[in-house]
Write a structure and sequence with these properties.
The complex is a heterodimer of chains A (427) and B (964).
Chain A: E1 6-11, H1 19-33, E2 37-42, E3 59-62, H2 79-82, H3 85-110, E4 117-120, H4 123-131, E5 138-142, H5 147-151, H6 155-162, E6 168-171, H7 174-182, E7 188-190, E8 209-213, H8 222-235, E9 240-244, H9 250-259, E10 266-270, H10 275-280, E11 284-287, H11 296-303, E12 308-311, H12 315-320, E13 327-330, H13 335-347, H14 349-362, H15 368-382, H16 416-419
Parallel strand pairs in A: 1-2, 1-4, 2-3, 4-5, 5-6, 6-7, 8-9, 8-11, 9-10, 11-12, 12-13
Chain B: E1 7-13, H1 20-28, E2 35-41, H2 48-58, E3 63-67, H3 76-85, E4 90-95, E5 99-100, H4 104-115, E6 119-128, E7 136-138, E8 148-150, E9 168-171, H5 172-178, H6 189-200, E10 204-216, H7 232-251, H8 255-276, H9 282-298, H10 303-306, H11 309-320, H12 323-331, E11 344-347, E12 350-353, E13 385-393, E14 396-404, E15 416-424, E16 431-441, E17 444-451, H13 453-456, E18 466-475, E19 478-482, E20 484-485, E21 497-499, H14 505-508, E22 511-516, E23 522-527, H15 531-545, H16 547-568, H17 570-579, E24 590-594, H18 603-615, E25 620-625, E26 637-640, H19 644-652, E27 655-658, E28 673-676, H20 691-694, H21 698-709, E29 713-715, H22 719-723, H23 725-729, E30 734-736, H24 744-748, H25 754-766, E31 774-779, H26 800-806, E32 811-815, E33 833-835, H27 842-848, E34 851-854, H28 859-863, E35 870-873, H29 887-890, E36 895-896, H30 899-907, H31 909-915, H32 917-927, H33 935-943, H34 955-963
Parallel strand pairs in B: 1-2, 1-4, 2-3, 6-10, 13-20, 24-25, 24-27, 25-26, 27-28, 28-29, 29-30, 31-32, 31-34, 32-33, 34-35, 35-36
Antiparallel strand pairs in B: 4-9, 5-10, 6-7, 6-9, 8-10, 11-12, 13-14, 14-17, 15-16, 15-18, 16-17, 18-19, 18-23, 21-22, 22-23
Classes of the chains: A alpha/beta (427), B alpha/beta (964).
Chain lengths: 427, 964
C-alpha cells in the first residue's frame, strides 16, 4: 500500500453468519495486511452472533448494542398517513437514536488521518453515514446484489436516495454498474469480491458426485435442481447429488425428493463449515439459483477446479463463468437444459477436466492481489489532489457539512457566486 | 512541486455573464480532485471577461482566464486557444450555457486509465429548461447502452452519429501527437473534430454514465449558433464541413466509413434542414435544396440503400430536383401519425413514392411496398388534407378542402360521410363536431363544412387555449382520420377569427383565431378581440403569472391530476371491487363473457354464449371488449374492459366465462362460478412448466397461483390436456371433459346452423374466396423477437411472388400472423395471398380452409378435427425449444424444413393428405378425444339449468347498458 490509509467498512452488522459479513471480514483482513488501518463498523449486532475468523489486524465496532426503533425511515404517502401521530413519533425516536449512532461514527471518522475512505457495504448502514460528519473522507457505497434484484425490491428507491451522494457507488459487475448508470446513477462503478480461497492441487474429478452449496430458499432454486436431477438420476443411477446448506425450504425439498423416489441418490448434508472439503469430493458443481449477486460458492468451486452448471440468471454468473469454457450456462428456469448440461458433464470426464482446468485459471482474475489493486486505484482516484495554488479552505466557503446537513440533496455543488461575492452570479 | 492536473476543462464563453458561473460551478464541484478550469472569453462585451478574471483571482491554479483580443464568431478558435493554455493530462470542453455531471471527470478519467483509450465518451443529456417538467432527452442513447472499447472507428462506425466534442475526454498527448485542432471560421467545427479524433484514436472507450448536460432554453430573439439552422450560410458551412470530412476519409482510404457517414448525413443532418424548410418561401427552399443537391450528387449512390427508407427517398428526390416530393418524404415520420403528402404509384405489383418523377420505378429507393400502404386499414392511413377555404360567411364558418386518396384506397362507389371536429388540445376527447360533405372527385376526396361556430363550439375559456382540427371520414363503415392543413392552393390560414361564446362568458374570450402549427396543421387559439374580453384576459393572465397565482394554479392542477389518477387507477378499482362491489347481491343468471382479454367476440366463450341464446336460457349476458365493440353481439350488454361498469358487472355476476384471464387481484366471491374454457391444447410448456415462471420470483409465481386458484371449472379436450396444460397451470378446479365449444362446428359442420353458415359465407365474401381455388391457411405460432417483444418482419414461409407464380392458380394462401405482427405482401401477389389477421374468430377460418400450414401452434389440435390436409413447416425448430411431446412422432401431416419442401408439399396436397389420414385419426384420438361436437351443450346443461319461468331476453337492460 503506497500510503497507509484509514479505511472504515460499515455494514448493517458484522457478526451475522452471512456471505456479506464473510466478505467484510475478508476484505478488512486483506486491507490491514497491506498496512491500512481498518475499522469494521456494524450499525448493530445480529440477533445470533457468529464469531468470524479474524486476526487482531483490524478493529470491530458496533454503533448500537441492539436496534429497537423501526428499521426503515417513515415515508408517508397520503395525507392520511401523514396524520399518523404514532408513526411520526416512532420516526422521531428512530431519528434521535440514529443521531446517537451517527455521533459515534463521527467521532471514529474524526480521528482518521487525511486520505481516509468509508466503504458502506449496505444501503441501510448508509443512513448512519449520511448523518455522520464525513469531512475530508470519501464515501464508497456498495450494492452486493444484482441490479435486477434491487430493481424488484424496495431497496431500489433507498439505493437511489441514499447512494446518490456517495463519491462512488460500486456494483459487483460491470454489467450491473452499466445498468445503474443507465438508471441515472452517474457515480456507478464496479468491484468484484476477492477470492477467499486459493486454488489448491487439481481435483481428480472422478467421484460420481454432483455438489450444490447454498441456502435452501426459493431464490437458490434447489427445487429446480431436484427437477433436473430426476432426469439425470434415471440415466446415471451411480451418481449422487449432495446438497449442502439449510434454510426455510429444507423440509419441503426433502419431502419432494422422497416423493420423486430420489431418496437414494440425493443426500441433504446440512450446513458445512468446510466448503473446500465438501467440494473436494465432487466432480461437478451445480448452481441452480434463480438470482445471484457474485456467487462466492462458484468462486470456490472454480478454485477447486470443478466445472459448474448454472442458470444464466444474473450478470455475476455470466462474469464468473464463460459458457463452454469454464462451465455450462443454460437459460434461466430451463430445467430440461440444466439436466442436459449435467448429463453432458457426467458422461464426459475429459470435458469435466477441460472446463475445470480453465475455471482454475479463470478464477485468478479475482485473486486478492488483483482485487486489492483495483481498490487501491479507486482510493487513489478519489483522493486526487486539486491543482496547486488552492488556498485552503476555499475563501468564503462554509465548512463543508456538519452532522445532519447531508441528509439533503447530496453534496452541494460549489456555488462560485457564493464564493466570490454576490453581484457576479445569477440571482 | 505539484503534479499536473488530471483534467483541464476548457470553458468557452461569449456574452454569457449570467450562465458562466453555473458552468464553472459544475467544474469546481467535480468529484475528481485534480481538475483545472480554463475559461476562454471570446471578447465578450457584457462583463463575462471580468467575471472570468475574478474567478481566476479567487482560485489561482484551479481556474485560469484567457481573453481573445477580438471575437472569433464561433467555437473553434476559443477552444483551440484553451487547448494551448491547458496543462491537464486530459482535456474536456464545456460551453458556458451547459454543465458537467458531478462525476463526469472521474468517470472519464477512470475509464481512460482502465482501458488506455485516447478518447473516452459518455452520455450527453439534453435538458429542456423552458418546460415545466424539465424534459430530459438522452442524445443517441443506443450508442451508450453499455461500456465498450473500440480499437478503431471501423469497429463501430455508428460512433459517427455522436458528433459532439463536449461529452468526451481527450488524452492530451493524443491531441498533440495528432495535431488535432478545431477548424476556425466555420460552424459545425465539432463534426470535423470528432471525425478526425475517432479516426486517429488508437482506442476509443464509451461509458453509459451521463457526463454532459446540454441545457436547452428556448428564448425569444437570439438563438444560440447551432439552433439557427434556418440560415443558408449555416447550411453551407455544414456542407463544407462534410466535404472536409469526406476528404479526410479519402486520405485514409476509408470508403466504408465514408458510406456510414453519408448515411448519417442523410438520416440526420439533411432531414433536419428539410423539415425546417416546410414553411419557408419557395426561393429560400430552392436555394437550400440546390446546395444540398450539389453535395448529394457527389455522394456514392449506395448511400440510398444504406440510409433509412424515408430519408433516403427524400435525399434521392433532392438530388433529382423534385423539391415538393423531397419535402413530403421528409415530413413523413415527423409526427407520431405519419402523414402521406405525396402521391403513391402502383407499378408492376410494387408501390412507389411518387412525387413528380415521370417513372418512379426507375430507382429501387422509391419502392415503399414494405410500408404496406396498400394493405393497412384506413384508420392507420393518414393522407394529407389541404384546406382550400376558411372564411366566415354571415356568421357561419365555411371550410373546404381536399384529401389525398393514396392508391385509390377509397373506391369510387364508396359511401362517404364526414365530420369536421375542433378539439381541445389538452383534452382531445372534448370535441365540437360539424357535419362535412365528402365526395370523391377525380383522384381525391373533396369536402366542405358549414357551421355556426357560436352554437357548435363551446370552449370553457382560459383552461382550453388551443383547439386543433381533424376531419373524420367514414368510408363504408371504416373510419379515416385526417388533419386539415396548408398546402398548394391554400388561402392564408392565419388569423381568421371565428366568434365563440365560452362557458365562462365572453369576458373569458370571444373568438377562435386560426393559425398553422409547426407540423403544418390548422389550429385555433382562443383569444379576445373585443375590449372587454381583452381587459379581463389581461387581468387574469397577470394574476396567473404572479408568484401566488402560479403556485396556486400549479397546486390546483396537481391535485386535480392526482384526484383523476386515483379515481381511475386500477388499484382503486380493485380495492373498491373487493371491499364494496362484491358485497352487493349477486345478480342471478348473469354471466360476464370475455375472450382474449376482451380483444374480440370469439373463442369458446362465444360458442357458449350462442348455445345459451339458441336454447333460450334466461341469462343476462355481459361481454367485455377492449378494442371497440365491432363484431360484438347486440343481444348482450357490452362493457369496456377495465371500466367501472366492467368491475360492477364482474362483482355481481353469477358466472365468469373466459378463455384467458380476468384481472389479477379481483376476489372471486363465493356466489360466482368461474368457467375457464382456456384457448387451446398445449404443445409448448405452460404455466409452471415454463422456464420463465420456474425461474421467476415468488411474486410472479404467486400471481399465477392466484389467477388459477379462482377457476371453478376448466375445460379439457383430452387426457393430454389434463396431464400437460392443467398440470402445468396447477389447476385444482374441476376438469370438465367436454371438449371445446368453439370446436363443435368443426365436428358437426356449419350446416345445421344457419347463423354460423351465414357468418362463414360472409367471411368467404370478405376474403374474396369465390373463384373455385382452394384456400390454404398459414397460422404459425407466436415468436418472440428481441427483448421479449413479438417478432416483426414478413413472417411468410414462402416468397409471396413465388407462391403466386407456382401455386397461385390452384391455391389461395390465407395468412394469419400473430395479432401483433403485420405481414408484407406486395400488391402483385395479393391475388394469391390474403391477410386473414383481422378475422377475430379462428373457427370460421378453419371451416373455410381446405388445408393448413402451421408449426407448433395449438391450432393443429383443432384443425385435425376437420380431417383435412395439414403441413408442418418447421424451418427453425431448434429455436422453438422443446414441447410436451415429439411432434415428428405424432404429426398428422408432412414436416417441411425448406421453402422448396413446402412448395412440393403444397403441390401434392391431396396425395399427402390421403397418406396421413390414419395419422390424423390417431392424432384426434390422442389429443381431442372429448371433442364430440356437444361441448357447448354440455357446459350449458351443467351450469344453466332451464328455469320454470323463462324470461327469454333482457333487451331493455341491454340497450340501456350500451348507451350508459
Amino acid at each position: 500500500m503506497a500510503v497507509p490509509r484509514d479505511v472504515f467498512i460499515v455494514c448493517n452488522n458484522t457478526d451475522a453468519m452471512g456471505g456479506l459479513q464473510r466478505w467484510a471480514h475478508h476484505l478488512a483482513g486483506l486491507l490491514a495486511s497491506r498496512g491500512a488501518k481498518v475499522t469494521l463498523v456494524g450499525v448493530t449486532h445480529a440477533p445470533e452472533r457468529h464469531r468470524h475468523q479474524r486476526g487482531g489486524s483490524y478493529s470491530v465496532v458496533a454503533l448500537h448494542d441492539a436496534w429497537h426503533p423501526p428499521a426503515l425511515a417513515w415515508r408517508p404517502g397520503s395525507v392520511r398517513q401523514r396524520m399518523n401521530v404514532r408513526a411520526r413519533a416512532r420516526d422521531l425516536w428512530r431519528t434521535a437514536a440514529m443521531r446517537q449512532g451517527a455521533a459515534r461514527l463521527s467521532s471514529l471518522f474524526g480521528a482518521a488521518r487525511p486520505g481516509a475512505v468509508v466503504i458502506v457495504a449496505q444501503v441501510w448502514a448508509m443512513e448512519w453515514v449520511r448523518h455522520a460528519d464525513t469531512t475530508g473522507l470519501k464515501i464508497v457505497g456498495m450494492s452486493h446484489e444484482s441490479y435486477r434484484a434491487t430493481r424488484r425490491s424496495t431497496r431500489y428507491a433507498r439505493v437511489r436516495e441514499h447512494y446518490a451522494c456517495a463519491d462512488r457507488f460500486l456494483a459487483l459487475t460491470a454489467e450491473d454498474a452499466d445498468a445503474w448508470a443507465r438508471a441515472g446513477m452517474s457515480n456507478a462503478d464496479h468491484m468484484p469480491n476477492p477470492l477467499h480461497v486459493l486454488p489448491g492441487p487439481a481435483a481428480p474429478l472422478d467421484a460420481p458426485v454432483v455438489a450444490c452449496v447454498g441456502r435452501l430458499a426459493h431464490e437458490k432454486g434447489v427445487d429446480l435442481l431436484l427437477e433436473a436431477w430426476e432426469e439425470v438420476a434415471a440415466r446415471h443411477p451411480r451418481w449422487r447429488l449432495r446438497v449442502y446448506g439449510d434454510g426455510p425450504e429444507e423440509a419441503a425439498l426433502i419431502d419432494r425428493a422422497e416423493a420423486a423416489g430420489l431418496g437414494g441418490s440425493i443426500e441433504f448434508r446440512g450446513v458445512t463449515g468446510d466448503v473446500g472439503a465438501a467440494l473436494g469430493g465432487a466432480s461437478v458443481f451445480a448452481l441452480p439459483s434463480r438470482d445471484e449477486g457474485f456467487p462466492m460458492s462458484v468462486l470456490e468451486s472454480m478454485a477447486q477446479g470443478l466445472p459448474t452448471v448454472a442458470f444464466d440468471c444474473a450478470p455475476g454468473v455470466r462474469e464468473l463463468l464463460e459458457d463452454g469454457a469454464s462451465g455450462l450456462l443454460v437459460p434461466p428456469g430451463d430445467t430440461v437444459a440444466f439436466a442436459a448440461a449435467l448429463d453432458r458433464l457426467i458422461g464426459d470426464a475429459a470435458l469435466r477436466r477441460t472446463l475445470g482446468a480453465e475455471a482454475r485459471v479463470s478464477v485468478l482474475r479475482y485473486h486478492p492481489d488483483r482485487v486489492l489493486g483495483r481498490w487501491e486505484r479507486l482510493f487513489d482516484l478519489l483522493h486526487r489532489e486539486p491543482p496547486a495554488g488552492v488556498p485552503e479552505p476555499l475563501p468564503g466557503r462554509a465548512p463543508r457539512r456538519s452532522a445532519g446537513e447531508r441528509s439533503g440533496a447530496g453534496r452541494p455543488v460549489v456555488d462560485p457566486a457564493a464564493a466570490f461575492g454576490a453581484e457576479t452570479g445569477p440571482a | 512541486m505539484r503534479a499536473r492536473p488530471d483534467v483541464s476543462v476548457v470553458v468557452i464563453a461569449y456574452n454569457d455573464a449570467l450562465r458562466l458561473p453555473r458552468a464553472v460551478g459544475s467544474v469546481l464541484g467535480q468529484s475528481l480532485g485534480g481538475v483545472e478550469t480554463v475559461i476562454v472569453d471570446d471578447a465578450s462585451t457584457d462583463g463575462t471577461g471580468e467575471i472570468a478574471d475574478r474567478f481566476a483571482a479567487g482560485l489561482p491554479g484551479r481556474i485560469r482566464a484567457v481573453h481573445l483580443p477580438a471575437n472569433s464568431g464561433g467555437c473553434g478558435r476559443p477552444r483551440n486557444v484553451g487547448i494551448e493554455h491547458a496543462s491537464g493530462r486530459f482535456l474536456m470542453f464545456l460551453d458556458s450555457d451547459d454543465t458537467l455531471d458531478r462525476h463526469a471527470c472521474l468517470n472519464l478519467v477512470a475509464a481512460a486509465e482502465d482501458t488506455g483509450a485516447d478518447l473516452v465518451s459518455g452520455l450527453c443529456a439534453r435538458i429542456h429548461l423552458d418546460r415545466a417538467t424539465k424534459r430530459v432527452r438522452p442524445w443517441y442513447p443506443w450508442l451508450y447502452e453499455r461500456r465498450a472499447v473500440y480499437g478503431s472507428l471501423p469497429e463501430n462506425p455508428d460512433l459517427l452519429y455522436d458528433t459532439l466534442s463536449t461529452n468526451k475526454a481527450y488524452r492530451r498527448g493524443f491531441l498533440e501527437d495528432q495535431g488535432l485542432r478545431f477548424v476556425e471560421r466555420l460552424n459545425y467545427e465539432d463534426l470535423l473534430f470528432t471525425a478526425e479524433a475517432y479516426l486517429a484514436a488508437g482506442r476509443t472507450a464509451l461509458i453509459p454514465h451521463r457526463v454532459y448536460n446540454w441545457l436547452v432554453e428556448r428564448r425569444a430573439g437570439e438563438q444560440s449558433i447551432t439552433n439557427r439552422r434556418a440560415e443558408l450560410t449555416n447550411f453551407a458551412d455544414r456542407l463544407a464541413i462534410h466535404r472536409r470530412i469526406d476528404a479526410l476519409f479519402r486520405r485514409h482510404g476509408a470508403a466504408d466509413l465514408k458510406l456510414a457517414k453519408d448515411a448519417k448525413f442523410v438520416n440526420h443532418d439533411l432531414l433536419l434542414y428539410l423539415r425546417e424548410l416546410r414553411n419557408r418561401d419557395p426561393g429560400h427552399q430552392s436555394r437550400v435544396l440546390d446546395l444540398a443537391a450539389g453535395y448529394l450528387a457527389d455522394l456514392d449512390p449506395r448511400v440510398f440503400d444504406t440510409a433509412n427508407a424515408m430519408p433516403a427517398i427524400a435525399a434521392y428526390l433532392v438530388r433529382e430536383g423534385d423539391h415538393a416530393g423531397a419535402l413530403a418524404a421528409a415530413e413523413y415520420g415527423r409526427s407520431r401519425k405519419h402523414e402521406i403528402r405525396a402521391d403513391l404509384v402502383e407499378l408492376d405489383g410494387r408501390v412507389y413514392w411518387g412525387g413528380t418523377m415521370p417513372d418512379p420505378s426507375g430507382h429501387p429507393v422509391l419502392d415503399v411496398t414494405g410500408l404496406g400502404f396498400h394493405l393497412r386499414p384506413l384508420n392507420e392511413l393518414r393522407p394529407a388534407n389541404t384546406v382550400t377555404a376558411l372564411e366566415l360567411r354571415g356568421g357561419r364558418a365555411h371550410l373546404a378542402g381536399h384529401v389525398m386518396n393514396p392508391l385509390g384506397r377509397v373506391p369510387p362507389g364508396a359511401r362517404l360521410t364526414g365530420s369536421l371536429e375542433l378539439y381541445d388540445r389538452r383534452r382531445p376527447g372534448r370535441a365540437a363536431r360539424a357535419r362535412a360533405r365528402v365526395a370523391r372527385v377525380g383522384d381525391r376526396l373533396e369536402w366542405t363544412a358549414d357551421f355556426d361556430p357560436v352554437r357548435r363550439v363551446r370552449p370553457l375559456g382560459f383552461a382550453d387555449p388551443v383547439w386543433d382540427t381533424r376531419l373524420r371520414i367514414r368510408v363504408d363503415g371504416q373510419e379515416m382520420v385526417t388533419r386539415p392543413g396548408d398546402g398548394t392552393g391554400s388561402p392564408p390560414l392565419d388569423g381568421v377569427a371565428l366568434p365563440v361564446r365560452p362557458r365562462l362568458t365572453r369576458l373569458a374570450a370571444d373568438r377562435l383565431s386560426s393559425y398553422v402549427t409547426e407540423a403544418g396543421h390548422l389550429a385555433f387559439t382562443l383569444d379576445g378581440g373585443g375590449r372587454r374580453a381583452r381587459t379581463t384576459r389581461a387581468l387574469v393572465h397577470r394574476a396567473a403569472a404572479s408568484a401566488v397565482g402560479r403556485r396556486g394554479w400549479a397546486r390546483v392542477r396537481r391535485s386535480a391530476l392526482a384526484a383523476r389518477r386515483a379515481a381511475t387507477a386500477r388499484t382503486t378499482k380493485t380495492t373498491v371491487f373487493n371491499r364494496v362491489l362484491t358485497r352487493l347481491p349477486v345478480r342471478a343468471g348473469s354471466a360476464v363473457f370475455e375472450s382474449h382479454l376482451g380483444r374480440h367476440y370469439a373463442g369458446n366463450p362465444k360458442y357458449i354464449y350462442r348455445e345459451l341464446r339458441r336454447s333460450g336460457r334466461p341469462v343476462r349476458a355481459v361481454w367485455s371488449h377492449s378494442a371497440g365493440t365491432r363484431g360484438f353481439p347486440s343481444g348482450a350488454r357490452l362493457v369496456r374492459r377495465g371500466s367501472w361498469a366492467y368491475y360492477l358487472a364482474l362483482a355481481r355476476a353469477e358466472f365468469w366465462i373466459d378463455d384467458q384471464g380476468f384481472p389479477d387481484r379481483l376476489r372471486k366471491r363465493r356466489g360466482t362460478t368461474y368457467i375457464q374454457t382456456w384457448h387451446g391444447s398445449a404443445f409448448k410448456p405452460m404455466g409452471f412448466d415454463q422456464p420463465k415462471i420456474k425461474g421467476g420470483t415468488p411474486a410472479e409465481q404467486a400471481r399465477l397461483r392466484r389467477m388459477v386458484g379462482r377457476y371453478d371449472c376448466f375445460l379439457i379436450r383430452s387426457r393430454h390436456d389434463a396431464g400437460t396444460l392443467a398440470k402445468g397451470l396447477g389447476v385444482r378446479a374441476e376438469l370438465l371433459p367436454a371438449g371445446y365449444p368453439r370446436n363443435d362446428p368443426l365436428v358437426t359442420g356449419a350446416r345445421g346452423d344457419p347463423e354460423l353458415a351465414a357468418e362463414v359465407a360472409a367471411l368467404r365474401r370478405a376474403l374474396r374466396l369465390d373463384d373455385g381455388r382452394r384456400a390454404v391457411l398459414y397460422a404459425p405460432t407466436f415468436r418472440h423477437g428481441a427483448g421479449g417483444r413479438p417478432a416483426t418482419g414478413p413472417g411468410l414461409p414462402i416468397d409471396p411472388v413465388r407462391f403466386a407464380r407456382d401455386l397461385g392458380e390452384d391455391l389461395v394462401l390465407l395468412v394469419r400472423p400473430h395479432y401483433l405482427t403485420r405481414i408484407d405482401v406486395p400488391p402483385g401477389a395479393l391475388d394469391a395471398i390474403r391477410d386473414a389477421g383481422g378475422v377475430p374468430d379462428v373457427t370460421l377460418l378453419l371451416l373455410i380452409a381446405d388445408a393448413l400450414i402451421t408449426d407448433h401452434s395449438s391450432i393443429m389440435f383443432d384443425y385435425a378435427l376437420l380431417d383435412r390436409p395439414m403441413v408442418f413447416h418447421l424451418p427453425d425448430e431448434a429455436d422453438l425449444g422443446t414441447g410436451y411431446f415429439d411432434l415428428a412422432r405424432y404429426a398428422p401431416g408432412p414436416i417441411t424444413r425448406t421453402e422448396d419442401e413446402l412448395v412440393a408439399a403444397l403441390a401434392g396436397l391431396d396425395a399427402g393428405g390421403a397418406a396421413h389420414a390414419g395419422r390424423r385419426r390417431d392424432f384426434v384420438r390422442r389429443f381431442g378425444e372429448h371433442d364430440r361436437g356437444t361441448a357447448a351443450r354440455t357446459v350449458v346443461d351443467r351450469y344453466f339449468p332451464e328455469r320454470r319461468t323463462p324470461q327469454r331476453h333482457f333487451p331493455g337492460r341491454g340497450e340501456r347498458g350500451r348507451t350508459a
